[in-house]
Every structure is written in C-alpha cells, then in structure tokens.
Amino acid sequence: MALLQADHLTVYVAFHFVLITLLSFTSATPGRGSANVLSLPQPYDFLYYTGVRSYFGEEWVKAAELLEKAILTKESLSRVRRQCHEECVEAGREAFNRLDSEKGSLHDLWTLDWVQQRAECLRFCVGRSVSPTAQLPVSTDIDYEFGSRNPYNFLQVTYYKLEKLQKAASAAHTYFVANPSHLEMRNNIEKYRRMEGVTEEAFQDRELENENHWVLYDSAVQYEASSDWLKAAEKWKECVNETLRQTDECRLQCEMASQRLPEDRGVDGSKSVYEQAADLSLSLLSCRQSCVTQVATRPGRISSQEDFLPTQLEHRHIAQFKAGDVGGAVQTLRSLLLFYPSDHDSLDNLQLYSETLGGDTESQGTQPAQEIVGYINRALDEKKLLYFGMENLDFSFTDPDLWTPEDVVPESQRDNWRAVKEKINVKMEEGEKKEEVDDSGFYAGGPVPQVGVTITMDDTVLNGTNRVVLDDVMTEKECKKILQLATAAASAGDGYRGRRSPHTPHETFEGLTVLRAVKLAQDDMVNQTDARLFYELGERVKVLLHSYFRSPSILYTSFTHLVCRSAIAGDQEGRLDLSHPVHVDNCLLEPETNQCWREPPAFIHRDLSAFLYLNDNFDGGDLFFTKRDAKTVTARVKPSCGRLVGFSSGPINPHGVSAVTRGRRCALALWFTKEKLYRDMEREEAAAMWAAGGQSVVKNEEEEKEGGASPVRNARSQASRQGRGRVTGARDEL
C-alpha cells in the first residue's frame, strides 16, 4: 500500500509541475510561433563573446556596441518572459477551475488540458519576440560573467579608449558595486570624478533595478543609526516589499528560463516518463526555493544573509513601535511569528505591544500581512514536495531557510536535517561572538574629493571595519614645511605634562598644538605660512574622512597634535616594548576579557581618528591594528609622507605603534567628534587670533553653517574646571 501511495504521489508531483516541464521543453524548441521574430534574434552569450573578441582586438567601437547589446538582450529576454507569463495567466483558466471538482482520470485529463493551453500560449508569446537560438540555455561561465558584472569591466576600458568618460564612469561604478574590493577600479572611479565632463549623474548603478532592496536595506539601517524611527519604519516597509518583488521575479525566471531535458542531463533511461517529469519539475522547484538565497546575497558577496526577510520584519516592528505605530508593529510582529511561532523574544514583545494597546491585538488591522501569509504557505507547499522527492526519488535539495518547521521534513530525513541546521546555528553563533559590530554610524566607501588622493588600503586589505589608508594627501614640499615647524617649535613631552618619554624610556616625545604654533608665528618665532598650513591640514583631513566614511552628521575637530617620536641612540639593543601600547581611542581596553569600557578617563567623545604622516626616514614605527586581545595583529601600515590613516575610534579598532629604533618619526594626530560640546576651542581661538590680525583662515563647515564659533564652553575646558587638570593634549597620539 505504501508503495502504491508513493507511486501515486510521484505522478502527482509530475502533474503538479508538468506545466513547468512542458514550458521548458517548448520554450527551448523552435515552434511555429517563432517565425515572426521581432526583437531578439541573437543570443546574449554570442553577443558577449563577440564583444570580448572585439575588445581584445582593440576594435573599441564594435566592442562597445556588442557588449551593450549583450546586456540589453539579456534584460529584454527577462522582460519578454515576464510579460508572457502575465499574458498567459488566464490561459486554460476554465480547465484549471474544474480540477477541484473532478477525480480520477477526468482530473488528469483536465490537468493536461490546462497544461497544454498554458504551454501553447507561452510558446507562441515567447516565440514571436525571441528566436529559437536566443531561447536556448546559456553556460554556467556566462552566468558567472554576468553575475559578477564583468561586461561592465570591459565597457569601462572601452569607453575610456573612446573618450566617452561619462559612460566609462557609469560602467566603472556599476562594476565596482559588485566588486567592492577591487582597489584599482575604486581609484579609477575617483579619477573619473575629477575629470572634466564627468557629472555626479554618471555614478549610478546600472543594475540597480535588480539590487534596489539592498539600497533600501542600507538606508533603513542608517535611519536607525540616527534614531529617525519614522523614516526607518518607512524604509523597512519598502525593503520588505522590494525583497518580495525581487523574489517573485527570480522565481518567475526559474519557471520561464529554458531547461535541458532530463535525457540531456544524464538521467537514467530506465526511468518512466512520470519520474523524468517529476525530476525536472523538482529541479525547477528547487530553483524557486534558491531564490531566497539569491535575493539575500549582496552584490560582490559569496554568502547570503541568513533569515533575510525575517530580519527585516524584526527591524521593522521595532522601528514602528518606537515611531508610535503600535498597531503596525503588532501586524509586523505577527508576520514575523509565522516564521518563528515559539520565539520567546517575539512573544514577549507581542505582550508588551498588547498592553500598550490596552489588550487589543486581535483587530483586523493587526493580523499578519497577507503577502507574508502567502509567502509562507507557498514555501511550505514547495518544501513538502521537495522533501518527498528527497525521500522517494533520490532528489538532492538544500533547504535555504532556517525557519522550516520540523514536521515538514520526513522522519527519515530529520536526523540529517537537524545536523545541518545545528551546524548553521553554531556557525552563526560563533560569527556573532567573533564579529565586531561598529555602531559609530560611519560607512566606509564614500568618494574622495581631493584631486590626486588615492585609496591604497580599504576595509578588505586592512582586515577590519571603517579603516582606510589614503596616499598623496600632502606634497613633499608640504611635508618638509611641517617637519621644519616641528623642529623649530615642538616641545618635549607636550600633552603629557612635560614627560619626555610618556610611553617608553627608549624614545623621546615632542608635540605642538595649533594654538601654540599660531602664538609662535605672531611672535615671529616660526614661519606664518607653516603655522597656517598646520591649521589647514586639519580641515583637509576632516573633509576627506567626512566624505569617505559617509558621516551622517557634522564632524567637529576635537584635537589636533603634531607629534614626533625619536629613538634614543645607544638605547635600542634588545628592545621588546612598543612605541605606543595597544589601546582604543574612546574606551578603556581590557584585553583579558575582550571588553572596552567607555568611561573616564577615556576620551569617550571621540568618534573618528586620523594620522597624517610626514616622513619615512626612520626604522620601525609602523601603525598596527589588533583584535581586542591586543595580541592578534590584523593589519600593518608603514608611514610615509602624505599618507593618511583614518578609522572609527571605537573598540572595533584597537591599535598601537611598533618601536621606533632609529631616527625621528613625525605625524599629525587628529580626532573628530559628532558632539559640538567637545569641539577643539583652541582651534577656534587660533582662528580668532588670525582674524584679529587681519588674516583669514579656511573656515570649517560648522563655522560656515553656523556663522562662527559658539561661546559655549567645551568639555575639555569643563574638565579643567572640575579639577581633573587642564587637558592640553592627548594620551594616545600616533
């Protein structure tokens, strides 16, 4: 009896998805309706290969034409499939409606009638716009080329050769979105930004239509970071809707794309027609399920984001609640509970929301969203069929979801299913423990506005988050001027109550503040232009890092210090210590527990740190980043003239300086804050002194926006009045 039931269900699986099977056969087979080809006579893989050959043959005009045509043809093919799918929805509707009332052989006949009418409609619809060869499946190599956006890599060079810089910039940006670790392309983009005739409109992702849910996701996260809960809730709603739309689009392409017949895929010829149809149907069904992973994978990433849709719902209900939309939060939370009905945190939140509403959580407006209900039901129906295929038809299927209920999985498959799920959960938990989260609100990867500055190292190369190395921020001439200023005016132990060796007995420490430099310049003890350059370099660094780290708020300079460390001759043999111990700029690092305490005496107001190096004629003195254990080095940076290192100041970026064993190492150390209260009043005093003398300085963004300096006393001055001693410098200049 069990065998008979299994055979019957095999037939059911075949019939249930035979529409997809027949569609696959017919869309890849020349039909009578394909004689009138209107728009897509050539396959996009053929156009692409031909375009690449033209590229290597340096036939730039032809290469551009063919590569663009390949991209357009691929997009058009997807659009034709989508339109035909919509047009043929009603085909065979009468036959389909009779399926529920018929049984036995009549049910099978009406099924075949429905399938045939749909298939004929689709074959005719696709065939009137797409040639038979253009309907054939492409190779996995072509899928990879287009998935990694390589056509835009070729187009970027091609348009550059043709001197079509606007188009070259657009192609470069589109390629870079999916290949964010490609430093050469990033630097090309910065060069395009500075070229005449290239406007900001060029830097748009040409593939945005397929990735817009990630734009919305990032936007929602940024609104959360700034506690704008109303806008965050709106963006999360848009993100959920766009994720559902992208998933449906992916599923549609699975159904409509041409598939090889089972025989062509090496299927055992002894299988019955029904078994072969079921095999192909299950493959297409598996493709539908894989859309969850595809949509949840960022451009340029290998791994998908687990629980992508449930995560969005979780963010959304919290944002709605904080924005005051408690009823909406209940509806979203109920939608989330469809994925995880027993989640304790969600149930506690539901209780909280219920109490806030006075117990009314059962009204129509607070029930789960229908689109989520449909999403869940559809996914469960498909999973049941796929797990049946695994149990009875030797079909291989990897479930993309962590929320799949255990009762959907056949008893014979559950041990293996539990083991796989446990591995994923353990991996996620380990990742959460190891992964540092930067809550600074900065997002590396913005533009670099200064001409000639290049990005040498980014997050990927530096193995961290919100880290960057920029080169050519200063010229050799400017470095020499500031070095001369340091030689003429730097004070021993400046910033450390006169201690010549505050960090190590093997080195001496000298420092100079902007205000002291201005006062010395007014007394004609140092060059006025050198002192002015010292001030203006701080503004230059702030502009660069504000742009690159895409700061959502105004940045204020918190402190600027010209510092030099010199090795003490004859005192370096056998040295094992550091020039500056590992530390974090805005919290007290405790390596033994991996904790970082954001409390005084740490400079808790610091948000962004920067070091602008002036020379490299010394030994040692490398900046290095570590993990919170202060031992595991994750990246090293060697100083050189005009090299700028910028990073967020929090526990994500512990850092130190290796011993300077010969020579003198000089740099500008700068810190920035989002809090106006902690801005550097000495810089404003310096600017006021210049103004009083009839000389102007470069105004910072805050002065331009706010009409000058505010009389409010800053925190460093307040600290002085509270008996902690006047803070004339910082403890951790690099």
TrEMBL record:
Q: What are the entry keywords?
A: Dioxygenase, Endoplasmic reticulum, Glycoprotein, Iron, Membrane, Metal-binding, Oxidoreductase, Repeat, Signal, TPR repeat, Transmembrane, Transmembrane helix, Vitamin C
Q: Where is this region: Disordered?
A: 693-734
The reply on keyword Signal is yes
Q: Where are the transmembrane segments?
A: 9-28
Q: Any keyword Membrane? A: yes
Query: So which domain of life are we looking at?
Result: Eukaryota
Cofactor names from the entry are: Fe cation; L-ascorbate
Q: What is the E.C. number?
A: 1.14.11.7
Q: Give every Fe2OG dioxygenase domain span.
A: 560-674
EC class: oxidoreductase
Q: GO molecular function terms here? A: L-ascorbic acid binding; metal ion binding; procollagen-proline 3-dioxygenase activity
Per the record, the similarity remark reads:
Belongs to the leprecan family.
Official protein name in the record: procollagen-proline 3-dioxygenase
What organism is listed for this UniProt entry? Pagothenia borchgrevinki (Bald rockcod)
Upper lineage: Eukaryota, Metazoa, Chordata, Craniata, Vertebrata
